[in-house]
Design a protein that fits this description.
Layout lengths: L8 H24 L7 H17 L23 E3 L9 E2 L2 H14 L7 E7 L2 E8 L2 E7 L5 E3 L2 H4 L15 E9 L2 H13 L8 H9 L4 H6 L3 E11 L6 H10 L9 E3 L2 H14 L7 E8 L2 H7 L9 E5 L4 E13 L5 E12 L2 E7 L3 H7 L2 E2 L2 E5 L7 E5 L9 E2 L13 E2 L8 E2 L5 H12 L11 H9 L14 H5 L6 H13 L5 H7 L7 H11 L2 H6 L2 H5 L6 H11 L2 H12 L20 E5 L7 H10 L3 E3 L8 E4 L5 H9 L3 E2 L1 H9 L6
Parallel strand pairs: 2-11, 21-22, 21-23, 23-24
Antiparallel strand pairs: 1-6, 3-9, 3-10, 4-5, 4-7, 7-8, 10-11, 12-13, 12-16, 13-14, 15-18, 16-17, 19-20
Bound molecules: 2-(butylsulfanyl)adenosine.
The site of 2-(butylsulfanyl)adenosine has 14 residues, from strand 3, strand 8 and strand 11.
Length: 676
């Protein structure tokens, strides 16, 4: 559907009708069948567009338009329950600007009265209405269409954290909350379903919905649902004056209130707080899809009132989509430096969490089988933080019969030798140590930025060097002359000299980089740094026992075992000897314990720095005795910000934490005096 707005009423009516059809279909899939085909964000886009058209062309709005009602009709199977007071939904904000506009509307409606907002987690579950009479939980219902929901009393009673009787309760109380499934329980449930060969739930919200709407309450009881309450509807015999009082009152009654709420007076601080949760959300035991901002004063809420659908005194700040639907165009197989075959899906490009995604890892054959992912399938993909996108599930219901099942090749696509799968491992591996793909990938890694950092030696040059027989392993790089390099295709005399000089310069990179460059399984930049600082010389790493290794901070048994195995191989020892003969430095100066300028200091990195990668910056800070943390708090000493720095920078400003650019960080690393 085109994104352009209709130019006249006739066009608007037809586009709106089409949108309504689509929205109704997806509402049915979501609310009634618990099997959504599109993500919430995609649904929001459809709704927003319809709202936009109906606002511009009010004459095309129909009484039965989805914009005029809250949810779907109650489903058959549960009795209907009319809510004593209607259950409203919330308008959405997707940006700081949307929040500012909301704030302006609120302030405008309150004639300049002071404003206080309560900001709460927006729990990704199902809204529930609980009716308490004289303190006894007598009925509970889902939201349904906002007026009438489904009576799910028996199922709600199975929620362990929900008291059936309240202390010192008023004669009548309608409590609003969200039923959700904790992440741990979701994982446990899906693992059990997988073992039983049952279809998996796509996310905790769908699992919660599916569990609450079980006709047999015993099934619901087996699935540990939980609840947070966040509001009151009808009430008798109590007087409250603010939303924060309401939350405290609910908690005093013995109900479970989410304690992660905060009060703000400025919308900019509200926005900072919302953005800060975008990164921290994965640390929670439950899913949130945003935050809810509510005017604190109940008198203010009464003055602002409601639109047909939403309160004017509250809004939901929604996080950007972390899921999207797209199609698998093809699957190709990559052979990595350890010989592991990794299938990768080529996707129809789609926008997801701020970037365009055209590939997703499929991990291994089991993953593809489990999820039944076929070439041509529509799939739901997901991306969290900086993690590579992953396929969550295939939409088998959309198949046309033209999709093809994928199996991993029995021979290595690069060298044609047999592929094996070791018992107990999920990976298929090419076991030919001379496999050109493994050699090539190993060399790509050796020269890469976080490893020996050899400028000008990109994948194309490395491939050309291998293909022309100039090198067979990493140590050969150091005997290649500029003259030989200049004979490679598209390599001029000048660039050949530059590459040769960069190779020669990398000899002094030091043990930390070298250990990482060797590609020892599980030894990343951090572990390599720890080993180098601890031992100072590769000879000592070679001789280190498993026990000695595990005694080092942050070196676990997996890394230790792999290091021992690496140095037990004759081939590897030979390579190290060859590197030694070539003049590559195999030592690292032990950190001068008296000169650790950043000892005790915690840093947070955000955005892209002009020259240092994140891991380089981390390694250098750590080498100087500092620590690098993932999120900004009062305990952070410095935030190092580069281009496109996000909410961490805002948070640092808010907390008054010194902000450094790369230049200032480098200065700090050199000196033992504190700047700023
Ligand atoms: S307040 C009139 N607070 O989000 C106020 N809702 O998109 C209505 N939700 O239907 C709701 N956490 O299911 C509110 N802390 C919270 C919430 C919350 C989750 C859900 C609820 C609501 C939906 C609106």
């Amino acid at each position: 559907m085109s994104e352009k707005l209709p130019g006249n009423t006739e066009e608007a009516a037809s586009v709106a009708a089409e949108l309504r059809k689509e929205i109704n279909y997806h509402s049915q899939r979501y609310y009634v069948e618990d099997a959504p085909e599109i993500t919430d964000a995609q649904f929001d886009v459809l709704m927003r567009r319809l709202l936009q058209i109906e606002t511009l062309f009010p004459e095309v709005t129909t009484a039965d338009s989805p914009t005029q009602k809250v949810g779907a009709q109650p489903a058959a199977g549960f009795g209907p329950m009319a809510h004593p007071t209607p259950m409203f939904s919330l308008g959405n904000a997707f940006s700081r600007e949307d929040l500012r506009a909301f704030d302006a509307r609120v302030r405008g409606g309150l004639d300049g009265l002071p404003v206080e907002y309560v900001v709460e987690h927006k729990i990704d579950g199902l809204a529930i209405n609980l009716i308490f009479e004289n303190g006894r939980l007598v009925r509970s219902a889902t939201r349904g269409d906002g007026q009438v929901g489904e009576d799910v009393s028996a199922n709600v009673r199975t929620i362990k954290s929900l008291p059936h009787r309240l202390q010192d309760a008023p004669p009548f109380l309608e409590v609003r909350g969200e039923v959700y499934m904790p992440r741990k329980e979701f994982e446990r449930l899906n693992a059990a379903r997988e073992a039983a060969g049952e279809t998996l739930f796509a996310n905790p919200r769908n699992a919660a919905a599916g569990s609450l709407r079980q006709l047999d309450a015993c099934v619901t009881a087996e699935r540990a649902l939980d609840i947070f309450v966040y509001g009151i509807g009808a009430r008798e015999g109590i007087a409250l004056s603010s939303h924060s009082d309401t939350l405290n009152y609910l908690a005093k009654l013995g109900l479970k209130v989410n304690t992660n709420f905060q009060i703000f007076t400025e919308i900019e601080a509200v926005a900072d707080y919302c953005e800060s949760w975008m990164e921290r959300r994965s640390t929670l035991g439950y899913d949130i899809d945003g935050l809810v901002i509510k005017l604190n004063s109940l008198e203010g809420q009464r003055r602002l009132g409601f639109t047909a659908k939403d309160p004017r005194w509250a809004i939901a700040y929604k996080f950007p989509a972390e899921q999207a639907v797209t199609r698998v165009e093809d699957i190709f197989v990559r052979v990595g430096r350890t010989g592991v075959l990794t299938p990768t899906a080529i996707l129809q490009p789609v926008r997801l969490a701020g970037t365009t995604v055209s590939r997703a890892t499929l991990h291994n054959e089991d993953f593809i089988k489990e999820k039944d992912i076929r070439i041509g399938d529509a799939v739901v993909i997901h991306k969290a933080g900086e993690i590579i996108p992953e396929v969550i599930r295939s939409l088998s219901e959309q198949r046309t019969g033209t999709e093809t099942i994928f199996t991993l090749p029995a021979e290595c696509p690069e060298c044609g030798q047999q592929v094996v799968r070791q018992v107990g491992e999920s990976a298929h591996k090419c076991i030919n140590p001379g496999c050109p793909a493994q050699q090539r990938e190993g060399l790509f890694h050796f020269v890469s930025r976080d490893a020996m950092n050899i400028d000008g030696l990109g994948p194309a040059v490395v491939t050309a060097m291998l293909e022309s027989g100039l090198v067979t392993d990493a140590a050969d790089l150091y005997s290649v002359t500029a003259e030989k390099l200049s004979k490679l295709e598209r390599m001029g005399v000048k660039s050949a000299a530059n590459v040769q000089a960069a190779i020669a310069a990398s000899k002094g990179a030091g043990l930390s980089r070298l250990l990482f460059a060797l590609g020892i399984r599980f030894v990343g930049v951090k572990a390599a740094g720890q080993l180098a600082r601890h031992f100072g010389d590769i000879e000592k790493v070679k001789e280190a026992s498993f026990e000695e290794l595990t005694a080092i901070d942050e070196i676990g048994p997996k890394i230790a075992e792999s290091v021992v195995a690496y140095f037990a191989s004759e081939d590897n020892l030979e390579l190290i000897e060859k590197l030694h003969r070539a003049g590559v430095k195999l030592t690292e100066e032990k950190p001068d314990e008296t000169n650790v300028p950043l000892a005790g200091k915690t840093f947070v990195l955000t955005g892209t720095l002009p020259t240092l990668t994140r891991s380089e910056a981390t390694a250098r800070i750590e080498a100087a005795g500092g620590k690098v943390a993932g999120s900004v708090s009062k305990k952070t000493h410095y935030v190092v910000a580069g281009e496109e720095a996000g909410s961490k920078l805002d948070k640092a400003r808010q907390l008054g934490i010194p902000i450094l650019d790369e230049q200032e960080l480098l200065l700090l690393l050199q000196t033992d005096t504190t700047v700023v």
